[in-house]
Write a structure and sequence with these properties.
- The chain is α+β, with helices and mostly antiparallel strands.
- It has 8 helices and 4 strands.
- The chain has one domain.
- The protein has a 4-stranded antiparallel β-sheet, with helices on both faces.
- The structure holds heme C (HEC).
Length: 203
């Protein structure tokens, strides 16, 4: 009897461990929406793990630039700084894997999501609406490997440039530099966008 239990336990462990040996494959964005979230989650996925600290490094460096610019020159001037630094950071932190940010309401139109990335944002939003947890996900398409990590608004600072009550000075700077800006009107704890690492499977 005891042996049976041990076998069962080992069997379960094997299932648990093998689950993340392979990143799930999504043939198309609709298929991605139908994958169970636990299978999509990057948690415990060894292939995805190295990208999470790279997102953190990107974020830390960007925040440092942003807070310094706000302190030294004010929020409106910091927008100009961000416009230069943000693409620089993308270049700096990318290698074979491109590292960048996306949003379904982008400020920089280059940050519009592709269909797979849009599907991830949709999936997270549905989970947030029903009070479920969200977190980084990893998957493969026919051509690429993706790790996508949510960016949720957690600091008051962000609302100076993305919130509902934006100073007129900041508003006019945004209108000047980002005429197609869609990234205002947010509240705390809302999903602002995501970090993406995308690597071609054909390299
Ligand atoms: C000083 C104004 C300012 C502040 C404060 C600010 N942002 Fe932004 N944010 C910008 C600008 C400008 C861009 C567009 C950068 C570019 O051109 O690539 C941007 C872009 C982004 C993007 C990429 C998607 C897009 O819309 O282009 C995300 C995600 C983002 N911000 C999140 C945040 C978060 C989270 C905070 C708080 C930690 C924050 N921002 C604080 C000005 C700001």
């Amino acid at each position: 009897m005891q042996k049976l239990w041990i076998c069962l336990l080992l069997g379960l462990l094997a299932i648990q461990c093998s689950k993340k040996d392979q990143t799930v494959v999504a043939a198309n964005p609709n298929a991605l929406l139908n994958i169970e979230f636990a299978a999509l989650s990057a948690e415990g996925n060894e292939e995805a793990a190295p990208y999470i600290p790279r997102f953190e490094a990107f974020k830390t460096e960007l925040m440092k630039n942003l807070t310094e610019a706000i302190q030294n020159d004010g929020t409106a001037a910091a927008i100009e700084r961000c416009k230069i630094v943000s693409p620089e950071m993308e270049k700096k932190h990318s290698d074979k894997a491109r590292i960048y940010r996306i949003s379904d309401r982008p400020r920089n139109p280059n940050h519009s999501p592709n269909e797979f990335e849009a599907a991830v944002l949709k999936l997270w939003k549905a989970r947030l609406d029903s009070g479920e947890k969200i977190g980084p996900v990893a998957f493969k398409t026919a051509s690429d490997f993706y790790v996508v990590a949510p960016i949720v608004l957690k600091a008051d600072l962000c609302l100076q440039c993305h919130g509902k009550n934006i100073s007129t000075e900041v508003q006019s700077k945004l209108a000047e530099l980002y005429p197609e800006d869609r990234a205002t009107g947010y509240s705390m704890r809302e999903l602002r966008g995501a970090f993406v690492a995308r690597k071609s499977l054909n390299d």
